[in-house]
Amino acid sequence: MDQYLEFLSLSLLGFLAGGYGALIGAGGGFVLVPALLLIYPGEAPETITSISLVVVFFNAVSATLAYARSGQVQFKWGVIFAIATIPGAIAGALATTAISRSRFNLIFGVLLIVMAIFLVLSGRKPASAQGPLVGDRKATLTLDYRTMIVGGGSSIVFGFLSSFLGIGGGFLYMPALVYLLKFPVHTAAATSLFVLTITAFAGSLTHIAAGLFQHGVRRAFALSVGAVAGAQLAARLSHRVRADWIIRSLALALGLVGLRLVMSL
Question: Rounded distance, CA 98 to CA 119, Å?
């Protein structure tokens, strides 16, 4: 592929993945990884995950800055959860070299499908799912120590999976923050993206230190250019999107991507 055409194509992919991921609080990794697996079938899993994590980092930073201006990010709890992800994120990044490409695709696909089914079957409506959350945008959440321990413990596992799969972990954090920790959906999306900045940064540094990123610099740059722009647009549109639509969109995206990966084996 011509390098200029490839740059434009990857930038467009980054814009779409980053915008959609920022809107639903999952980051763009869960779209980027399967897309890159299909575009570059000969690449090793560690190369794909290293590219994705770098893009997720820049996408999450861009989205967090935009959401912070409207007061939707819960920085206090985001910092606690993010710090808890770091050990898992480092271990997950190092573990990517220990698995074959076909097994990687299978694990990733099945995990996405399981998460989609959970979101569809959950009978409880997420907090403030009735409409656009104007009132919760500057909300201050008070969580007890039990919730903090549960959230921190979950974050360690999420950190490993997010770095191992190269997706940043937003698709795990969004359901956890909404259904387990009772965050309002829009607040959960914004806070999830803030956590991703730290998780993806830790995973990316580990990949770079281990020499796993050297073949993906050019592609990561092209994808990041689009992802940063997409995140800004998504943050501007977020207050117009109903909370229940965000959850449904997340479930649909996870299910379709997961099925595509499993069926490609």
Answer: 30
Q: What are the φ/ψ torsions at residue 134 (nearest 5 degrees)?
A: -80, -40
- Sequence letter at residue 251: A
User: 221: pLDDT confidence band, cut at 50, 70 and 90?
Assistant: very high
Q: What is the pTM of this model?
A: 0.73
Give me the helix-helix angle, 145-165 and 29-39, nearest 10°: 10
30 Cβ contact partners less than 8 Å away, ≥ 6 residues apart: 21, 112, 167, 168, 170, 171, 253, 254, 257
**DSSP code, position 126:** P
Is there a contact between 171 and 21 (Cβ–Cβ < 8 Å)? no
Whether the CA torsion 241, 247, 251, 257 is positive or negative: it is positive
Q: What is the pLDDT of residue 37?
A: 81
For residue 259, the tally of other CB atoms under 10 A from its CB is 14
DSSP symbols for 92-144: HHHHGGGS-HHHHHHHHHHHHHHHHHHHHH--SPPTTTTS--SGGGG------
With CA atoms as reference, report the closest residue to 60 among 243, 265, 203: 203
Q: Which residue type is seen at 143?
A: L
Cα-flanking dihedrals φ and ψ of residue 185, to 5°?
-60, -50
Which pLDDT does position 135 carry in this prediction? Answer: 38
pLDDT range class, residue 8, cuts 50, 70, 90: very high
Max distance between CA atoms of the chain, in angstroms, equals 55
From residue 27, alpha-carbon distances to 140, 227, 250 in Å are 23, 9, 11
71 contacts 138 by C-beta, under 8 angstroms: yes
Q: What is the pLDDT of residue 144?
A: 64
